[in-house]
Every structure is written in structure tokens, then in C-alpha cells.
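Hi support team,

I've been running sequence recovery on a batch of backbones for a student project. Most finish fine, but this one hangs at about 90% for roughly twenty minutes before it completes. I'm not sure whether the input is malformed or the queue is just slow. I've pasted the C-alpha cells below so you can try to reproduce it. Let me know if you need the job ID as well.

Thanks,
M.K.
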């Protein structure tokens, strides 16, 4: 099953990248993320996340995301969650937008023990609503993440995540609309704090010219 997932992801990513580079718009971004996982007891967790995305050659705050979620641990390696996301987007050209999302999520470990090579999966189903626009966009996101030990306590972190529209609305196309691929390093600073710097490549499929975002990404993750 894992080989099928990884093989499918690789082929799909290559098909997206096969479009000639001259046909795509390109942008350099800086994305900063702060996450916190809080143990509430009785196998319940609270997830808090904020992201600031600097776009247009990282010159301005183009998008702000706030995303809380409540999770329940089914076992030591599997968690189901229910969450909400608010996304404010301020493009350089055109009107700004405010998006609200409800999402359901399943996170599980596919292989490994967290110390050696480890593979995890995150499946997220979103219902998307835009202020001032009719319709609900249903979208599936499937992330597969691999980590492996490096020097000391640092770990290599690689992941891929397609965003698949399950229906078409005024603001969402059906099929693959986004594809993100990440390569970085997970560095534990303390028992409660981890830094994860890296490079994220985002392919945005649009009517007309597609866009490629080259993202310098830094995540600060805390656990309580």
C-alpha cells in the first residue's frame, strides 16, 4: 500500500512538473508557521496553528491562516480530528478574500517507530466557504511524510501533499488544484520545542497560466 501511495504521488508530481517552466508564473515566498499540540487528558488533544505567508518575492503579507482543531487518540499512532480554519488572502492584484473551512482529519503512522525511518499519513477532508460567494467546496488533501535520522537528534523531513477538489464552484476547480512537496530538517531544540526549516515547492493549477511558488519555510512546533 505504501509503495502504491508513494508511486502515485511521484508520478502525479512529475506530471505537474512536466509543464514547460516558461509557461508558469513563478514567485518566491517565505512561510512562517507556529504550531502547538496540547494534551487535554483522556486521549484528547488541542491543536493550534498560525501561518504567515509572505508573497510577491516575499515582499508583503499575502496570506494569513489560523487553524485550531480538537483531536482524539484512537491508539498510540492514530488520531482523528475535527477543526476549523480561517484564511485571509490579500493578492497583489484583485480583491482580498476571507475563507472559512471545516475539516475532518485522520493522522496515522504507516511504518517505523519514530526513531528510525518513519512514514506517516495525514488525510484531511475540507468543506470550504468564501464570504460573498455561494457554494461549498469539498476538497481532499493527502499528505505522506517520511523522516529519517541525521546527525545528532536532527532528522531529515520529506513530504508530499496533493489537494484534490471533489467538486467545482466559483472559487474551486475539480481535480488537483495544488501540489506541495517539502524537503527540510527537523531540529529538536528542547523536549517541548522543534524547529523545521526547509524548502517547499507549490504547484498551483489555474485557468490560464499555472504558478510555481518557491517557498523558504520555517515551522516552530511546541508540545505541552
Amino acid at each position: 500500500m505504501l509503495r502504491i501511495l508513494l508511486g502515485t504521488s511521484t508520478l502525479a508530481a512529475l506530471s505537474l512538473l512536466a509543464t514547460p517552466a516558461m509557461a508558469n508564473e513563478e514567485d518566491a515566498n517565505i512561510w512562517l508557521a507556529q504550531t502547538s499540540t496540547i494534551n487535554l487528558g483522556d486521549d484528547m488533544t488541542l491543536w493550534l496553528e498560525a501561518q504567515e505567508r509572505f508573497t510577491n518575492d516575499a515582499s508583503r503579507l499575502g496570506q494569513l491562516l489560523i487553524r485550531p482543531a480538537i483531536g482524539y487518540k484512537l491508539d498510540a499512532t492514530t488520531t482523528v480530528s475535527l477543526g476549523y480554519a480561517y484564511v485571509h488572502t490579500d493578492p497583489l492584484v484583485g480583491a482580498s478574500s476571507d475563507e472559512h473551512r471545516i475539516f475532518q482529519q485522520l493522522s496515522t503512522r504507516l511504518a517505523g517507530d519514530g526513531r528510525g525511518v518513519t512514514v506517516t499519513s495525514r488525510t484531511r477532508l475540507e468543506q470550504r466557504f468564501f464570504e460573498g460567494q455561494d457554494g461549498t467546496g469539498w476538497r481532499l488533501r493527502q499528505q505522506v511524510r517520511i523522516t529519517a535520522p541525521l546527525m545528532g537528534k536532527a532528522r531529515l523531513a520529506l513530504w508530499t501533499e496533493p489537494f484534490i477538489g471533489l467538486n467545482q464552484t466559483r472559487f474551486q476547480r475539480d481535480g488537483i488544484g495544488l501540489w506541495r512537496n517539502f524537503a527540510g530538517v527537523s531540529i529538536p531544540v528542547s523536549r517541548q520545542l522543534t524547529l523545521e526549516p526547509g524548502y517547499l515547492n507549490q504547484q498551483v493549477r489555474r485557468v490560464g497560466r499555472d504558478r510555481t511558488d518557491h517557498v523558504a519555510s520555517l515551522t516552530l512546533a511546541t508540545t505541552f
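--
Follow-up from support: It reproduced on our side and the slowdown came from queue contention, not your input. The radius of gyration is 18 Å. No action needed from you.
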